User: What shape does this take?
Amino acid sequence: MSVLELARAEIRAMQPYSSARMEAGGGKIMLNANESAWAPPGDHGLGCNRYPDPQPQALLEALASLYGVRSSQVLVGRGSDEAIDLLVRAFCRAGEDAIAIQPPTFGMYAVCARIQNAAVVEVPLSPSFTLDVDALLAALTPAVKLVFVCTPNNPTGQLVAHDDVVRLAQALAGRALLVVDEAYNEFSDAISVAGLIDRHDNLAVLRTLSKAWALAGVRIGSLLANEEVIGLLRRIMPPYPLPLPCVDLALQALSEPGQAKAREHIQVVRQQRQRMAAALAALPGVRQVLPSHANFLAVRFDDAAAVYQRLLSAGIVVRDVRRYAQLGDALRITIGTPEENDGVLTALQDVFA
Assistant: This one.
């Protein structure tokens, strides 16, 4: 059975939009897209008066090399959020199909499902925030077409074991597409599951340049999957998702010097994460610092609301995650520069003094 049989039949059958850039055919005088013939001020040779390549080959090849897959297995879009939305729209019929998630986890999975009027099956993580594979599989119904797994998980920071991903992919074959979100993988020692894509056609992996690669404002994320899934999503993707300046910045970040700088910063984050976890755990108003493999720490406080307000009054903004399941006393603190982290500790010491 092809994994595409899980997708909506009307999406598989539709005639995709053919953009002017896709039909350009390598001409030298471009008069087919109603563009301006003049570059705008400050263009610096990018050619922003022309529509961009929908999937720039140089970027696809750079990302494929980075993630250890073929360029034909990469779809690039506006952050991994766009890939989540495309997956839900391609695989879930409104009012009939569903996704499965394990709260507390990244909120956009459920948001995209509800926009599509797809149901959301929730299978909570254990009290220690680990994934219970047996409970997840037992909760799935035939309506579930997508199973989202986040590792390291946001907002808790825990990993899902590689063997658990393999077990899920095998159990879901012919039933659902397993989508593993590895947005924070670079901050962990975990091996990416992207290497399993050729063995499991129902496995897809989300990656992003927003975190470790310092390009949150550029909005470039990737979906890694088998060629059939990539081709299906390109059918429903807007024709020009990637602005030329964003592609240019991404290619600079993925160059050899750019990768060296990113890895330098990743190492600082990992060192600071360890330091901050120990320092926060020693504070009197802290109940627990959850173990994290990401670039943040989820911290339980005796009075999280008061701590949040006191930090805010000191000009420090952290994430209030008290609305998330099992995290009613927690704040999520991103690991910043050593100086920013010092500021957090100083502010908290003042709070608890």
About this structure: DSSP finds eleven helices and eleven strands in the chain.
